[in-house]
Amino acid sequence: MADIIRLLPDNVANQIAAGEVVQRPASVVKELLENSVDADASEVHLVVSESGKTLIQVSDNGKGMSETDARMALERHATSKIQKAEDIFSILTKGFRGEALASIAAVAKLNMRTRLRGSELGTELKVAANEIESQEFCQCPEGTTIKVQNLFYNIPARRNFLKSNQVELRHIIDEFERVAMAHPEVAFSFEHNNSELFHLEPSTLRQRIVNIFGKRYNEKLVPVSEDTELVKLEGFVGKPEFAKKSRGEQFFFVNHRYIRNPYLHKAVQKAFEGLLLDDSHPSYFLFMELDPARIDVNIHPTKTEIKFEDERVIHSIIRTAVKHSLGQYNIAPSLDFEH
Ligand code: ADP
Ligand code: MG
């Protein structure tokens, strides 16, 4: 019998793998913004045209890359963030899988300009369909600028599956807001079709929330704070009278990473019990810090779902802390603490 199994060429493997990481323009935005934050940038600028279908560009003043690293960064499973498998249980960076840039470069045209802090010259790389087309020295600012053009130009099916510009832009804004909220100490700007949608100076979390969601949030927010051996919880919940019919402003962050978690969502909802109309949802912005050894961030390629070792305990800590805060602000009777 003839042998029929072949190893796929790198560019094909990358294109297939890209399906997991790069689902839409917003996925590119998320990956690039997270890379900038991981590179210790204090300023990050996002420029997008046509809801990311034609252009997504992220510039940062982070640590930049050497000439060799600039090329390596585009390889799949190439990362500066971990060295061994156990490292993901002590990880504090957003990335570690080393596949975002390789995936993006497999499904779009990518141009990278990067200069190491303190280095005389930078490197400019032009890449299409995973092939480096040119590499030159450049007089670029310290930090990194990555420009992604014509997303999915080589995968018509994917391109056709994209939603309207309005929907794709909404997804981009969501990703932008999540990263910007996770890092109020970093300045972010966002320009779409030549108009500035966000201009965020470094600030406190409260100020960042107000800058993103509007001034009326200033009177809406009730602080939540709890420090246990397992988890440090900080953030805000919206006062019950501001709860909305639609879901939307509900955010959990774990070690500065936005996550989705229906079970912990219920913990907040429980804390609001009796204070809300049946079909309204409280807003919340809750930050958890916990030992990375007690979570698993590698259960999903985009890492928006994570596993907690002690989910039930965290549930109860959140519920109690939120209830306590609501009580302190004379919004709910604070008589019934439960431990
Ligand atoms: P990961 O973030 O999982 O490591 P990526 O494919 O997103 O994988 O990036 C690969 C590597 O390229 C990173 O580990 C990092 O060393 C480097 N890199 C990517 N973006 C930047 C940036 N904006 N500034 C500095 N280095 C970067
Ligand atoms: Mg990354």
From TrEMBL:
GO molecular function per UniProt: ATP binding; ATP hydrolysis activity; ATP-dependent DNA damage sensor activity; endonuclease activity; mismatched DNA binding
Spans through the membrane: none
Alphabetized UniProt keyword annotations: DNA damage, DNA repair, Endonuclease, Hydrolase, Nuclease
GO biological process: mismatch repair
DNA mismatch repair protein S5 domain location: 209-327
GO (cellular component) term, any one: mismatch repair complex
Task of the protein: This protein is involved in the repair of mismatches in DNA. It is required for dam-dependent methyl-directed DNA mismatch repair. May act as a 'molecular matchmaker', a protein that promotes the formation of a stable complex between two or more DNA-binding proteins in an ATP-dependent manner without itself being part of a final effector complex.
Family: Belongs to the DNA mismatch repair MutL/HexB family.
The name this protein goes by in its record: DNA mismatch repair protein MutL
Originating species: Croceimicrobium hydrocarbonivorans
